[in-house]
Amino acid sequence: MSRQSSTAETATLTPLMFQILVALVEGERHGYAIMQQIEERTGGAFRIGAGSLYRAIKQLVDAEFIAEAKPKLQVHSQRRYYSITPAGRRRIAAEARLVHGMVTWAQDAGVLDR
Amino acid sequence: MKSMNRLLRWLLHRFPVSFRERYGDELVDLLNSLTKDTRSHSGWLGVVRLWAFQATDLTRSAIAERRAARLSQPSEPQATSRQRSNRSMDGLIQDFRYAIRRLTKNPASTAVAVFSLALALGANSAVFAILNPLLIRPVIPLRAGEVVNVYTPRQSADRSYRPFSFREFSLLRESDEVFVDVAAFRPTMVGIGEPLGAGMRRHFGFVVSDNYFDLLGTAPVAGRFFLPEESGPSASVPVAVASHAMWQRHGGGADFVGRTTMINSTPWTIIGVAPAGFSGGNALLAPDIWLPLGMSSLLGGAFGNASGGRSLTDPGNFALHLVARLRPDVTVQGARSRLAALAVRLSESAPDNAQGARGLEIEPPSRFNIDTEPASDGPLLVFGLLLLSMSAVVLLVACLNLANLFLAQGTSRRGELSLRLALGASRRRVVRLLFVEGLVVAVLGGAVGLLLSYAANTLLLDSLGRSSAFASMGLTLALDVTPDTRVLLATLIFCGMASLVFSIGPALRVTQTDPGGYLSLRASDLHTTDRWGQLFSGRNCLLMGQLGLSLTLLFSAALFFRGAHAAARLDPGFEPEGDLVAELDYSLSDWSDLAVRQRLTLAVDTLRTLPGVRDIALASHLPYGNVTQSLEVTAVRGNLARTRGRVTAISSGYFQAIGVKLLRGRDFSELEWRSRGNPPVAIIDERMARTLFSIEDPIGRYLQPVNPPGDRGSGRMEIVGIVSAHREDLLSEQPPARIFIPLGQDSVARAFVHLRVAGPTIPDALPEQVRRTLLSVDGEIPLVRLAPFTTIMETNMELWAVRFAAILFGAFGLIALLLAVIGVYGVRAFMVARRTREIGIRVALGAQPSHLLAVLTMQGAVHIGIGLSVGLILSLATGRLLASMLLRVSPNDPLSLAAGALPLAAAALLATWLPARRAVRTDPMMTLRHE
């Protein structure tokens, strides 16, 4: 395993981090909501473990791609809401473009044809 | 749900502190919501699946996070590996010193801990030391799986077994479809060493074929084993192989081989010595000597039956037991399928096939029985397993008790331990400290326990071996219970496990510094939220189980004691008081039957003239004498009933001599018992009369043995007398039916002379007079025993077995009681220690100390009550089982129940009361300041 963090410039984000960022682009969310959103969007293909989720969140926070936000409505005092930072937006955009490029190539190569 | 929360909290603790602080609460909240939602749409099954996945994920994340945290830390100056190991060694030695210092400062509690552990470990290693040679240690030296015993049952409804003849043995030995080799042996008793005369010692031995040792796979440790020419059926070479024990008894010198020894008062040469521990496949009894088949006709049988005197070449002489080694390519099952053909060939050679063909059977050899019928070792195996599991449970219970004890201590040491942690000791270090303390206690306990168990075992076996029950039969025990490496290793493993169980658990609990955990601990003991849960908490359930188990063991012990007591008091139906018995074993001599009779009658007639001897008689068997012979008979032209009766050959005047009433008919005449060739007659007891003839008069009718011996015609006997029923052994509720025949009707091997005096006590001078008289009549008389009948009755094996069981159960019961009481004390001490603050407050606020004491004690008493009730149910079930085995005990014996329950309840109550009293007594100011 490379010691380099997945959030470094020269590495790719893990799929989970990718999805967390995308979920947060759509709006501020807390952990459970992020998890539900991901499971919904990927049609249940991804089962997220709570531990993995928070590890990924921690790494994203440390890399300053997401930040803890003051929630608008304080329903649960223990539910921390997260929002994406400008740096995070830039990063997810770059990442998505990269992945899009790869998928287009695969499409052209006929990978996705049944 | 609570258990899930606990699991979750434990899993969370695997994460580094920083992560936990940041995301711990969120994680818990997320999982709770997730669980709720999953339950509503997938039910409990979904929840279980969810948790299986989430728990794994948490574990993996925790590991990854820890590794990441470690890698990102600034590296400390790397100590060299030697420096590091030195440091930890110093720490370890320090820990040991501290542990010893601490233990010596609390001698009382240390003594209790070491003592209870010693008891439990001692019990375990004792049981293992006995079971090891009895059940585990291999007795057949070479590839025991291939060795089987061979039996021949009659192919008819009654499947009676008999030994083999030499011809049959040779035939089987030559065949090779099933067996690679077949060896023959038969048990015998010989008198070794001292010349035939008063005080000769009998020894158990085997008469064997030359290939016996080879087949079992053993080599001589000195000299050699038998040659084929020495074990031919008519060879008469007087050579013998001694056992290792016998060699040691004679000094163990190199000159033992080649020495001449007197056996049955003829000189024999010792040609070899068997290796130590070789007992011919028996785990219990070891022969002292092995003799070649060629000398078989000169040697008697082992248990009084005169099967030895005939030559092996006689095709009607069935005397041999066979042991065989299967071909390596054949399993036992496969061999069985081929036996039928072999059996047919065998039948063609046997002269008694007129009474029905015989088959062949093979069975793996029994570890305990030497018999012509296959016998199962099952009961002893079950007994062994029962014993082992009993002692394992006792050990487990002791460890958990000690865990409680340590926990209670640890709670009061919280201050000291938190100080250590605050001063920078790692949690691992503190846990190690407590573990070392536990280890020291465990090793001390183990050492004391090993000594205890060795002493107890040796004592037991010595008393067993020396007890007249075995010695009188000339048997030597093969059991060797010196702890060998296996036993020591087992004890060490037990010690290790014990210390793990009872020190690590509490150590981890006590060093928890998590403030959240500590607070929740306090909360739970201030208000008993879940009363039911607290009542049946794990620790308390264990306690109640201990109490129940102890009660059952004590009750069983009491039942056995009562059984033994009742058995000893059982009315035998005859009068043993005032009867002096002399045992003459003519199987140890080589005289002809005629010569034996002459000497015997001469001895009896001379003894009759002794002053003080009122009656004198002879018998071939002794009631309560551990040896019996049975015969199955039916009545001629009777009601077709068949019954088994115990046979005794007697002289006239026997019934008078032992105090049994002659009800009808007559006793045997002098002619009938002194000479052979008279018309066969018999005397039966009331039981047999009732079974065979109901209300008709048996006198004048005839008895027909179902399997008459071939050379005596039909074996039909005329019934001439009826006697009252009397016992021959202890355990059967109904004494078996008896048949008496005159001594003249059978060959004589053993003779028991009954000398009855007037009155119930035997004059002190009489035994010596009898001895001198016998010696003067016949200088070579084989007198092997001379004792009052009452003394001999005490050596009955069944009586001994019941007494032994009583002591065994009693010992286990006592150990269980002690442990249960210590357990109660430990748990109550811990409970009370946790509530010290509360108690102090209550007392300071004015509560009456005596009232508090009563409340606390009652709370403990509830557990005792439940435990004893559980024990009561168990005891009643056990009682039913035991009552079926023992005589005259009722399964619900209230006296035994009380004997078990009362001391247990009293001791447990005391153990509940003491810690409460101590807590209530302490100055409230001290307890409050304790925080």
Walkthrough of the structure:
The complex is a heterodimer of chains A (114) and B (931). Chain A has 4 helices and 3 strands. Chain A is mainly α and 114 residues long. Chain A has one domain: Arc Repressor Mutant, subunit A, CATH 1.10.10. Chain A has a 3-stranded antiparallel sheet. In chain A, helix 1 crosses helix 2. Chain A is globular, with a radius of gyration of 15 Å. The model of chain A has no long low-confidence stretch (mean pLDDT 83). In chain B, helix 1 packs parallel to helix 2, helix 4 runs antiparallel to helix 9 and helix 4 packs antiparallel against helix 23. Chain B has 931 residues and is an alpha+beta fold. Chain B has 27 helices and 25 strands. In chain B, the strands form 4 sheets. In chain B, strands 1, 2, 3, 4, 5, 6, 7, 8, 9, 11, 12 and 13 form a 12-stranded mixed sheet that branches. A 6-stranded mixed beta barrel of chain B has the order 17-18-23-20-22-21. In chain B, strands 16-24-15-25 form a 4-stranded antiparallel sheet. Chains A and B meet through helix 2 and helix 3 of A and helix 2 of B.
How would the blueprint of this fold be written?
The complex is a heterodimer of chains A (114) and B (931).
Chain A: H1 15-25, E1 29-30, H2 31-41, H3 50-62, E2 66-69, E3 81-84, H4 86-108
Antiparallel strand pairs in A: 1-3, 2-3
Chain B: H1 2-13, H2 17-71, H3 81-105, H4 107-136, E1 147-153, E2 161-162, E3 164-165, H5 166-174, E4 179-191, E5 202-208, H6 212-216, E6 222-223, E7 239-242, H7 244-249, E8 260-263, E9 266-273, E10 285-286, E11 289-292, E12 318-326, H8 332-349, E13 361-363, H9 378-412, H10 414-422, H11 427-466, H12 468-471, E14 476-477, H13 485-510, H14 515-526, H15 531-535, H16 538-569, E15 579-585, H17 593-608, E16 613-619, E17 630-635, E18 642-650, H18 654-658, E19 662-665, H19 670-674, E20 681-685, H20 686-693, E21 702-705, E22 717-723, E23 737-742, E24 750-757, H21 766-777, E25 783-788, H22 789-794, H23 797-834, H24 836-844, H25 849-885, H26 894-921, H27 924-929
Parallel strand pairs in B: 5-11, 7-9, 18-23, 20-22
Antiparallel strand pairs in B: 1-2, 1-12, 1-13, 3-12, 4-5, 4-12, 6-9, 7-11, 8-9, 10-14, 15-24, 15-25, 16-24, 17-18, 17-21, 19-22, 20-23, 21-22
Helix pairs in contact in B: 1-2, 3-11, 4-9, 4-11, 4-13, 4-23, 9-13, 9-23, 11-13, 16-23, 16-25, 16-26, 17-21, 23-26, 25-26
